[in-house]
Write a structure and sequence with these properties.
The chain is mainly α. The chain is built from six helices and three strands. Strand 2 and strand 3 form a beta hairpin.
Length: 127
């Protein structure tokens, strides 16, 4: 939801319950390995479907399509169809998608920083 300071800066009419519910929905949608990889690659540059599929590696056509549609539905990816024969379709991150990429990068940085600690804890726990 945010820190107390962040919440205090919100206008009085802000619907925190609705925002929290929406955040849970979006994070549930994007919290998968494919969405994170798609966000990372599209954050580097605009890409066509086939080049994105090649960059992500190991993702099926169907899974890439589903994830791109979900990201587009949530306003994180913009799909542009260029009128040519055959039609050329490109995908790029929106401003909101770029913002989420920063969060994803932060999570990856956190993982790298605490990798040894996490691995040691898992060994101790018995995983």
């Amino acid at each position: 939801m945010g820190t107390r300071h962040e919440i205090s800066l919100l206008p009085p009419e802000a619907d925190l319950a609705r925002a929290d519910s929406l955040a849970r929905e979006i994070f549930s949608d994007v919290a998968n390995k494919w969405a994170f990889l798609i966000i990372e690659f599209l954050g580097q540059r605009t890409m066509r479907f086939t080049e994105l599929r090649r960059e992500v590696g190991g993702i099926s056509h169907k899974m890439l399509t589903q994830n791109l549609r979900m990201l587009e539905r949530n306003g994180l990816v913009e799909r542009t169809v260029h009128p040519s024969i055959p039609p050329r379709v490109e995908y790029t991150l929106t401003e909101a998608g770029q913002g989420l990429r920063g969060v994803v990068d932060g999570m990856c940085g956190w993982t790298q920083r605490y990798l040894g600690h996490i691995e040691q804890s898992r060994r101790t726990f018995g995983d």
